[in-house]
Amino acid sequence: MISGTAKADNTALDSSDFEAFDDLPVVLSATRLAQRIEDIPAAISIIDHRTIVASGARNIPDVLRLVPGIQVAQIDGSKMTVTYHGLSDRHAHNMQVLIDGRSIYEAAHGLVTWNDLPVDLEDIARIEVIRGPNAATYGANAFAATINIITFHPAEQNGIYTRISAGTSETDTFVLRSNVSATNSDHRVTLKFDETDGIETRYDNSHTGMISYRGDIQLNSRDALLLELGYSRGSREDGFGDPTDSSNIPFALDASFDVYQPQREINDEHYSGQIKWSRRYSSDEEISLQYFYSHQTIDDAFNTVTFSEYGGQDLLDLLDFTFGQPDQTLHLGYGTESNRHDLEFAHIVPLAGNWRLSWGAGARIDSATSHEMFGSNDAQTIYQFRLFANAEWIAQHWMVINAGSMVEKYENYSTQFSPRLAASFHINTNNTLRISVTDAYRMPTLIENYSNQFARFEDGSVFDYIDFGPGNLEPEEMRSYEIGYIFTAPDTGLNLDIKAFSDKLRNMIEIPKDHTCLEELNPGTSSITCESFDSITSGDYSGRYTYDNNGWADIQGIELGLMWNINNDTWLRGAYGFADIRHYFMTDLSPALSQTRDDQAPRNTWSLLLAHNFDYAIRGSLACYSLDETRWLEDGDKIPAYHRLDARLARHFRVGQDKGEIALIAQNMNNKYQDFQTENELRDRIFVELKIEFH
User: Fold this and answer.
1) Least confident of 494-498, 556-560, 594-598, 655-659
2) What is the pLDDT of residues 82-124, one digit of tens each?
3) Helix, strand or coil, per DSSP, at residue 469
4) What's the pLDDT tens digit per position in 246-288?
5) Cα 422 to Cα 438: distance, rounded to the nearest angstrom
6) Which uninterrupted H or E stretch holds 138?
7) Distance (Å, rounded) from C-alpha 133 to C-alpha 137?
8) Can you tell me whether residue 1 is helix, strand or coil?
9) Taking every pair of C-alpha atoms in the chain, what is the biggest distance, in angstroms?
10) Nearest of 49, 62, 41, 39 to residue 3 by alpha carbon
11) Tens digit of pLDDT for each residue in 50-84?
């Protein structure tokens, strides 16, 4: 999806609101080479700043609803998940997400905590989304897609900026940003505070504070330094059912209280830093050395209430009969403390014969600690070393060949190769055809490989063995075939991107149930046999979920992206995705059986964004989103199809040299819908937003 020309408004808050491209833009995320869209080896969607503003989105996941094939879900009032072509739970393991080239993929769970990212929407210049595997460029976790969030250079923003918004569900946001330029350097500091009461049907209030810094320093005519720092901290409610509510007693007759997900408060803390030195020898050659570090703490360990408080005497008697235990609480949790260190060297160099090459090497250390998730206080650590290269060859004026591969060596794993070969054929100045084949791998997360999670009594004995990572999981594998077509008509402002694909996923990591008996876990504590215990509990507490490479899937489909600058004041952006999926996996029955599903990705998704400049410095936009029914994995549910309608109306103004904007944003105006879990009922929301830029 590609931007075209648009009329600049000198009353605008920022000229970049309607920044666009007369020709197809140059992109960076496909091969690390600066390439025209017609020449890259993969389908890409570009969301520029004007689209972010016009969408009325309040967070990055909502912006990504405009990308073909992307599905976004609201886990609760503050947590969201983003995936490409379904097959995902709340963690969405299969995408690499970058901010200015540094990975923000959290290694323990394999997730992106979107609500805690140290970046504000107003600081984002553009988002490049590679739709398809891009492991040849960014490694094993660029499995299904890559999202590269590119922020503005501080010199592109001016003075002091503030934004205040308030809306339904007690949702309030305050942002303060300062940009300062000095001799040979530019700096930006952004402060942001967010709070919301969340979804009306959920216990999910949240409060988050964030500060970020970016500094760009020109050391001399050739050398430059980029420094970025980020910190965020927040608290959020989670869980189901109040155990002190008498309506939850007896436990056996009311399922609103979840012993494994009780109502509680979770505290998150994240900080990160990046330093990148680059030396430019010419417009075509550059070397760089980058180091980044990220830390995340999720504090989510808790004790439940005692059995007698929510289960009554009958359950207490059963507990004593089964375990020989007194009345006591259970202890469990889902928190982790994780760290990532990453060092990378890269070199972009022109070669003879119309060749260009980007190559480099890097090393990474991922570690995570969690007594509740790993069963001990020992850190789980994995080391990774990588070597990558991507080459572009202009074989003829009408044909461009791209070839590349990532070679990765993970501790205790054999060497992994992720090759890609693609050819682009420029039929004429308006039409380009692309074909490509790519192999990609996704490494198991630390939780998948090493989890050893129990629900324990206060005295340390086991009540339930929740899940287990065997430590010897193999990487997931994908081979992707793609045919792409790009049509551009600058005279009419129309750009069209079509992709047909076939993805074959193998060795998928699933979690079938291993029926291990509690008597084996606590020898001598159970007064009954495994067989009789199974009959009492119907198997609910007699097993553990064990990660295993026992799934595979085939996905075929078509995607379409449209960008049309109808005239100087009106533009239209559209996206459509069709996916036909067959997912094969082992059930949690005993014995396990093979099962097939075709509902773990929505069959049809589409979005449409229409924006218009009215007289009197007024701008308006409408955004429509549609998603067929889909099933989210693990703690997610099968969600009915829904349609969503958002609108934004804004008025720009000036006071002396200062600029401002006041906007009214309405989301989900047409109806309420369910998302991720059936308990999540999303209703209409209204926000008022004020922006002021001081000079």
Assistant:
1) 594-598
2) 999 999 988 888 889 999 989 988 888 888 889 888 899 999 9
3) coil
4) 454 444 434 466 778 888 999 999 999 999 999 999 999 999 9
5) 8
6) helix 135-138
7) 9
8) coil
9) 83
10) 49
11) 999 999 999 999 999 999 999 999 999 889 999 99
Q: Cα separation of 92 and 90, whole Å? A: 6
pLDDT band at 462 (very low <50, low <70, confident <90, very high): confident
Q: What angle do CA 443, 447, 449 make, to 5 degrees?
A: 55
| Inter-axis angle of helices 530-537 and 307-323, nearest 10 | 150
Report the pLDDT value the prediction gives residue 459, as an integer from 0 to 100. 77
Phi-psi region of 76 (alpha: psi -120 to 50; beta: other; left: phi over 0): beta
Q: What is the value of pTM for the model shown?
A: 0.90
In single-letter form, the type of residue at position 468 comes to F
| SS3 (DSSP) at 123 | helix
- Strands of the sheet with 513-514, listed across from one edge: 301-303, 330-333, 452-457, 462-468, 544-546, 513-514
For 186, the token pair is 């530019």
| CA dist., res. 501 & res. 455, Å (int) | 43
User: Count of residues for the chain?
Assistant: 695
What pLDDT does 633 receive?
87
Could you tell me the sign of the dihedral formed by the alpha carbons of 654, 655, 661, 664, in that order?
negative
Asked if residue 476 lies in contact with residue 440, where contact means CB atoms within 8 angstroms, the answer is: no
397-432 as b/e, with b when 16 or more CB fall inside 10 Å? eeebbbbbbbbbebeebeebebebbbbbebeeeeeb
SS3 per-residue string spanning 556-611: EEEEEEEEEEEECCEEEEEEEEEEEEEEEEECCCCCCCEEEECCCCCCEEEEEEEE
* Mean of all residue pLDDT scores within the chain: 87
Measured CA angle at 438 (ends 111, 92), to 5 deg? 15
Tokens, residue 227: 């420094």
Give the pLDDT of residue 588.
Answer: 57
Tokens of 669: 């105006």
Phi-psi region of 397 (alpha: psi -120 to 50; beta: other; left: phi over 0): alpha
Nearest to 440 by CA among 146, 148, 139: 139
Q: Residue 312 is inside which H or E element, if any?
A: helix 307-323
Residue 37 gets the label, from left (phi > 0), alpha (psi -120 to 50) or beta, of alpha
Taking the C-alpha atoms of residue 332 and residue 455, their distance in angstroms, rounded to an integer, is: 5
Nearest to residue 36, comparing CAs of 338, 467, 584, 402? 402
Dist. CA 228–CA 210, nearest whole Å:
14
314 vs 536: CA distance, rounded Å = 13
pLDDT in tens, 564-581: 999 999 999 999 999 999
State mean pLDDT over 324-351: 89
- Contact of 251 with 311, CB cutoff 8 Å: yes
Q: Helix (H, G, I), strand (E, B), or coil: what is residue 412?
A: coil
Q: Residues 6 or more apart from 414 whose CB is under 8 A from it? A: none
The better pLDDT of the pair 134, 528 is held by 134
The burial of 663, by beta-carbon neighbours within 10 Å (0-12 exposed, 13-18 middle, 19 or more buried), is given as buried
The three-point CA angle 121-88-539 to 5° equals: 135
